[in-house]
Specification:
Blueprint lengths: L6 E6 L6 H8 L5 E5 L2 H4 L19 H6 L7 H8 L4 E4 L4 H13 L4 E7 L2 H9 L7 H16 L4 E4 H6 L1 H12 L22 H9 L12 H7 L10 H12 L23 H15 L11
Parallel strand pairs: 1-3, 1-4, 2-3, 4-5
Helix pairs in contact: 6-7, 7-12
Length: 300
């Protein structure tokens, strides 16, 4: 990707993998617009999706008062035209939206960069466990997302969360090079820009509103978490399915100097899509009519 070429950048990854943070880091430039999890504006399924609150703090937000009226299939293209930016970053994650966005972008002749962020299973398990979920919740979350993403056969660059938080400045510079974004010193300090960001991680959103933060990796796990983790198949080295998925992600890691191939055909670019795509579409249609509030685990 060359600098100053308008494009769509998708920050993909399972829940609690750091996609909101990556979105805002990449978007911390005058040439970029961070959408957040914009799919929920067009495909709402939680009660708060029907009354979105922009990270800028204005109600109503003047930016979204205009952009929110754009049809979903034209959204990314029209933002590039109207917002005076060269790059749109979208951390929606939802795999139906990811596939649709890749197809819509191709229809508009807009290059797409798919970044795929993932956490080591132990780190992901802790992220869910400390919010009250069972120790083995991470496994279904990981596999349901990454196996299905890989099934789509989209071109992508994988990023390990620990690599990002361990050395954010250096890694972000490399990601910007891949995405065609002009990198600047301190770009990882996403809280220094007034974003117009919707939904996403509540914790990261608070960092934006406060205007200060600190990026750090997990150093020590609580003893009771370690005891629970040691009972999992992954901790015992017996989870071949999870290991195979991780190997596929590592093979596409940003450190391997691989760049997404814009010429790659989208496997599901036509009418036929994977079975789970239609299952999700039916589920969201139901939830749009009968939305529920965020659970305690989802709101932190």
């Amino acid at each position: 990707m060359t600098e100053n070429q308008s494009n769509l950048i998708l920050a993909n990854g399972a829940s609690r993998s750091g996609t909101t943070m990556l979105d805002l880091m990449l978007g911390n430039s005058d040439a970029c617009f961070s959408c957040g999890e914009i799919y929920a504006l067009f495909r709402p399924y939680r009660t708060h999706h029907f009354d979105p609150e922009c990270s800028c703090g204005e109600r109503p937000c003047p930016v979204w008062s205009e952009l929110g009226k754009i049809p979903q299939e034209d959204f990314h293209a029209r933002v590039l035209q109207r917002a005076g930016v060269e790059h749109v970053i979208d951390s929606s994650k939802d795999l139906n939206w990811v596939l649709d966005s890749n197809i819509w972008a191709r229809n508009h002749n807009i290059p797409v960069v798919n970044f795929l962020l993932w956490k080591d299973p132990k780190d992901l398990a802790y992220s869910h466990w400390k919010r009250g979920r069972p120790i083995d919740y991470y496994r279904s979350s990981f596999l349901n997302y990454y196996e299905r993403f890989l099934d789509l056969q989209l071109p992508f660059i994988a990023i390990n969360y620990q690599d990002l938080v361990g050395n954010p400045g250096e890694l972000l510079q490399k990601l910007c090079e891949i995405a065609g974004i002009e990198w600047h010193e301190g770009q990882e300090e996403f809280w220094n820009k007034k974003h117009h960001h919707l939904f996403g991680s509540a914790g990261t959103g608070k960092q934006v509103s406060k205007g200060n933060s600190k990026i750090s990796a997990i150093k020590d796990f609580p003893a009771d978490f370690i005891d629970a983790w040691n009972q999992t198949d992954m901790a015992r080295g017996n989870d071949s399915r999870l290991n195979a998925c991780i190997a596929a992600l590592q093979a596409a890691d940003v450190g391997r100097d691989m760049h997404p191939d814009d010429s790659t055909e989208i496997r599901y670019g036509g009418l036929l899509k994977p079975f789970w795509y239609y299952h999700h579409a039916i589920k969201y249609a139901y939830q749009k009519r009968f939305p529920v509030k965020l659970s305690a685990a989802e709101s932190t």
